Amino acid sequence: MHQHAEKLLQHPVDHVTTWLFDLDNTLYPGTSSLFPQVEARIRHFVARHLNLDEDAARIMQKQYYHTYGTTMRGLMVEHGVDPHTFLDYVHDIDHSALAPDPALRKALLQLPGRRLIFTNGSGKHARAVLKALDLEQVFEGVFDIHAAEYCPKPNPETYHRMTAAFGLDPKTTAFFEDSPQNLETAATMGMTTVLVHCGPGLPPLALFPEQALSAYCHHMTDHLTTWLEAALHSLNRNP
Questions:
Q1: N or C: which terminal CB in the chain sees fewer CB atoms within 10 Å?
Q2: 28-to-22, 35, 188 alpha-carbon distances in Å
Q3: What is the DSSP pairing of strand 192-196 with strand 173-177?
Q4: In this structure, which topology does domain 33-91 adopt according to CATH?
Q5: CB of 201 within 8 A of CB of 78?
Q6: How confident is the model at residue 9 (pLDDT cuts 50, 70, 90)?
Q7: What pTM, to 2 d.p., does this model score?
């Protein structure tokens, strides 16, 4: 069992009745080649639409992401880009980069309560990812960027819209994300937060001093399946 999964046992999750998951780089490892495909197509879209070279497009892509939460939102606000055109282009990728993880599927199915997806991507992309991971039947619903009216995480308005759509109570919800800034809003609302730290190029959590990690990340793991198995062990030990 991973070091940080062991620490979970010091923080009970027996109050959780809703398990809310981000999609990309959370339900599959950030080391996968899938999301780099998306990022490359975002960069190509920016370059083509704004008539920029690749380097300038990369800078603009990151600038809009940090300013608006997603590059798409920046393109919508600054350039009037149609979100459907953008999403159809950037999500036209090869999902064969993903493979089912039977241990993850088993752990997810054993979680007591509801299992939901909250993503800044499209529902079409979410369904394709879940199909590739053999998780289509695991989740009750998906709240996507269309349902968010193109206002991405971490905007609080989107979280309130999501909780209303799903009818969930933040205080009994655990939210899993690879982005610390997206966990801040969730924690402020009363959710239990889990940082899934497995993005590309990131060092393992064990190398981070705990005080340097966000105060909004109640739990942290570099391996989602191991964390879930530890949570289930804790729940079964304290029914």
A1: C
A2: 10, 10, 26
A3: parallel
A4: DNA polymerase; domain 1 (1.10.150)
A5: no
A6: very low
A7: 0.89
